[in-house]
Amino acid sequence: MKFSYNFLQSFFKKKLPPAEKLAEKLMMHFFEVEEIEHLKDDIVFDIDVLPNRAADCFSHVGVAREIAAIIGMEYEKPKADFQEDSESISDLINIKVKNACSRYTLRAMKGVKVKPSLPYIQKRLKSCGIKPINNIVDATNYVMLEMGQPLHAFDGGKIGGEDIVVRFAKKREKIVTLDEKRYELYDDILVIADEFSPLGIAGIKGGIVPEVDKNTNLIFIEAGNFDAKTVRKGSQKLKLRTDASSRFEHGIPPEFTKEALDRVVTLIAKNGGGKILKGALDYYPNENKAKEIIFLAQEVRGLLGVEIPLKEIERILRSLEFKVRREGDTFYAEVPYFRIDISIKEDVIEEVGRIYGYENIKPVMPTVQMRLSKESASVKMEKIFRNLWSAIGFSEAYNYSFINNKVATSFEYKNLIEVEKPVSLEYKYLRPSLLPGLLENIKENEKNFKEIKIFELGRVFFYDDVAKEKKMISGVMAPDNFYEMKGALDVFFEKINIEDISYFPVQDENFLNLNRSAKIISGDVVIGYVGEISSEIRGKINLKKKVSVFEIDFEKIVEIASEIKPYDQISRFPFMIRDLAVLVPEKTLHDEVLKEIKNAGGILLRNIDLFDVYKGESIPEGQKNFAFRLFFQAKNKTLSPEEANRLQEKVIKALDSKPEWKVRK
What we know:
Elements: E1 2-4, H1 5-9, H2 19-29, E2 33-38, E3 43-47, H3 54-57, H4 60-71, E4 84-88, E5 94-97, E6 101-110, H5 119-127, H6 135-147, E7 152-155, E8 163-168, E9 174-176, E10 182-184, E11 190-193, E12 198-201, E13 205-206, E14 218-226, H7 228-238, H8 243-250, H9 256-272, E15 275-278, E16 281-283, E17 291-296, H10 297-304, H11 310-319, E18 323-327, E19 330-335, H12 345-356, H13 377-392, E20 395-396, E21 402-403, H14 405-410, E22 429-430, H15 435-445, E23 452-464, E24 466-478, H16 482-495, E25 501-504, E26 512-522, E27 525-533, H17 535-540, E28 548-553, H18 554-560, E29 576-585, H19 590-601, E30 605-614, E31 623-632, H20 641-656, E32 662-664
Helix pairs in contact: 2-4, 5-6, 6-9, 7-8, 10-12, 11-12, 13-16, 19-20
């Protein structure tokens, strides 16, 4: 934003430092001066004022206040010095505020002679990039640059009715602005209107109908405090950005309206004569209360890392127009109304440090003892799991945590958590599973790769009385190879030392092929599933290749997994090997038989291999044959053939106790 050196000098009796030196001071304690432009009779600073300071520093008086605090000079505030006429503004007009305006103030003048502004006003306006028009319009622009409050003047003779109204525009309402451009308004754009039509777009630009001209006798001058979001949205919709809108968008203290109006009528009366009508119409239903912030001297030391004398802290805050009182080491600082960016004690302490000078705060190495943070078990296992799946041959994917309505319908998901304000319809719901994203990865890549193996570790979201989330691990493989996927899972479980794993039929997952899928169980706990995506789902999501998938509950396996395999001394005695064939119904899972063998074999049964599954000749219809190899071994001796036979007989007896199973001899 541009600031005139001559304009800033007008607030000081003493001469300001040269422009370059002043710019250096501002950059050390205030904001960056991006450019210094030397004009014929002025110097212009282009200062990058940050948004949080727009309220008080989008004005010359705000920057002058900062200069005074930084270099220790006194500055004079703009004066409002005028006499009012006996005729009252309330006899001529009323104001009605209906929407998006916290304060609206109106003054009136009569008999003002419209003519060019005084030379110094014209020069300062030009320095800041504003074209002079006449003494009335120029005065409103000058005060905006001076105090930060946009103002607008209406020709009172061109206003219809007895009311000026702040309201939202009506449907299909139109306005022609001062630059003679026509705009069709929306019903969320705020306007200033008379009883018949809009007079201006609130906080953005005035209309051409009530424009002040050489024949103007009665003028109304407004100062409003319009809602920042409403002004910003209106400016964006109309693609109309002005000096006024840029100020309102960042927020302005409501106290500015009355001060700015008193100042502007002072300037107009000095250069245009006329009379200032008595009083001001002022809509201000919720007056701001002064805010007091309490902090301790030790908190200044703790935050800034330097010992600043108590009197210096007081002096700095008073130079920034805080009202300060101190009781011992406790400060009570009343925040100036124009500092709407100050809300907590850290903000106040930062102001002390800024003016004191960060260059005066010497860097000191911290004296606290540093300790390595302990890595959580969950984070550690995440790393291990990711490395394992990468080693098994899967590539890791990172997908968005959202799904759209089409995916939700295809997978028949229920009770989804809906995002309140999604950025698009593609991100309407939080994902209840990692699989939709991984299947989309397959669809996007299957045309380029013959084989795809992808896994993801991430959070899913679901309702369980209340909204909850948990971590899952999912993987996909295309083209489908159910047994290879199961083998990959077996390797994974072996590496994280989960031995008690079983697979049982899936009956309730509608998106899986029930003939090629299984629940994954550890002990009695279901920890996930593995299977082939059903042809129905593949059709719905336009997936060409068959795909096998798995999904595991991360939090459940973290509880039972271990990165360290328990030590088990290798026996130096040989195995005794026995083979066993058992006839079972065709629907019987080998895991069921395996469990019975393990339970019966006891601790001397060291390993079991399923080496054959046979259906066909010599096997009754509806049945199949499992062939197992049993490995018996003791740690303290060599088992005799008789001992191995007794253990085998014990296993056979346990299997034969099942009515539908029969050990073949």
